Every structure is written in C-alpha cells, then in structure tokens.
Amino acid sequence: MYDVRNVRPPLDAGPPEPPPRPKGSLFPVLVVLGFGLAMTIGLVALTGAAGLFVVFALAGILGFAALHYLLWGWWLAQKIREDEQAEE
Known about the structure:
mainly alpha
C-alpha cells in the first residue's frame, strides 16, 4: 500500500545502531581438531611405528617453530620497549 503522508524521521534520531555482532561458535574449531585427531589415529593405525615416527617428527617441527615464534616475539617486544624508552 502506498502512503501519501509526508512523514520524516526526527532530526535528533542520530545514526541507526549497528546490528549486534553474532556470537562465535566452537563447532568449526572442534571439527578441525577432530579431523586432525582422526587423521593421526588413522595414520598410526595403518602404518604402525613408521606413522608414529612421522607424527613425532611433525610435532617436533611444529613445536620448534612455535618456540622460535614465541622467543622472537618476546625479544622483539623487548626491543620496542627499549626504543620507546630511549626516545623519551
């Protein structure tokens, strides 16, 4: 139906409120973790000790990378703090 009235929104209404942010779900994270666990179990079940060595090697490489990431981040944060203090 067409409304012929000349109705305007009030000028003091301000910008409309943004819609609420949707809440996240842990389901995708659980799916990925479950898939990784299933692949690991399947690899070890099908290949035996060789698969176990592969899993340990991959875990070692990921752990080594994570350790370097954390240590480098800590070192870089210290350098940034030192530079900021030197500028003051």
